Amino acid sequence: MQVLRDVLEKAQRDGVGVGHFNIGDFVILKAVFASAQDLKVPVLVGVSEGERKFLGTRQIAALVKSLRDEFDFPIFLNADHTHSLASAIEAAKAGFDSIVFDLSALPFEQNIRQTKEAIEALKGINPAILIEGEIGDIGTGSEIHDAAPDLSKGLTSPEEAKQYVDATGVDILAPAVGNMHGMLASMVQGTTKKHLDIARIAQIKSATGVFMTLHGGSGTEDEDFRKAIAAGINVVHINTELRVAWRRGLERGLANHPNEVVPYKILPDAFEAIKQVATSRLKLFNSTK
């Protein structure tokens, strides 16, 4: 079975992106996995600290491993936006394939120092685990926002990206390149789209040479995704789009079965809504028709 580094190296050679989807429950995991199986492409699923608290860190790790082993399929698990070393160690010991050690809210030098210390500790637990670091400001919360925050002052420069990567030794870098966590109401309605700083992505890739992740991908213009992957993005995070699909699918299931109380008879609508979104994104990232 491939390890995550092998998958990312192949994606980089092939000029495609690996889709990363946050999973807040089993329905989302099941739909994302089914999408990846149908398309025969690798997939990353992620759980934030809040999602891990809800699902159980060891429990979700065991569930994803069972899917990978039973179906001999390249599905990988990421500990998304981890803000403490204790939480990161818990994920590493549970068998996660990667960890986003996110100290981007701290001063730059402090981010560097603590990230370097975390990498040493986490690689001691599992040398194959990939550690992702984040610099810049992409906002917080994969939810629906009333207004867009001003993130222009928090964009990542190629110079600070190189300094950060060289000093910490991170395997993957998450920069701020015009991306934003969550979506605006207008994006949910489809009337506006996010746009990325493609030139900045290419400059950061050239300066650092490491794998790069695009966080906050929900609501981004399709062509921007294509250009971002061509410029050096290797992993694309989608979360809010799946949450919106989950909510709409669940509401449809409840409306279609107003007297039903059996979950597995109500939830297929949510499953199908999520799968449709995941499939469209995986096709786009992998240049699949």
Write a structural description.
The protein is an alpha/beta fold. The protein has one domain: Aldolase class I (TIM Barrel, Alpha-Beta Barrel), CATH 3.20.20. Helix content is 52%, strand content 15%. The protein has 13 helices and ten strands. The chain has helices at residues 4-14, 26-39, 49-55, 57-71, 85-94, 108-125, 158-168, 185-188, 198-208, 222-231, 240-256, 263-266, 268-285, and strands at residues 18-22, 43-47, 75-82, 98-101, 130-134, 144-145, 172-174, 183-184, 211-214, 235-238. The strands form two sheets. An eight-stranded parallel barrel has the order 1-2-3-4-5-7-9-10, surrounded by eight helices. Helix 2 packs across helix 13 and helix 11 runs antiparallel to helix 13. It is globular and about 60 Å long. It starts with a helix and ends with a helix.
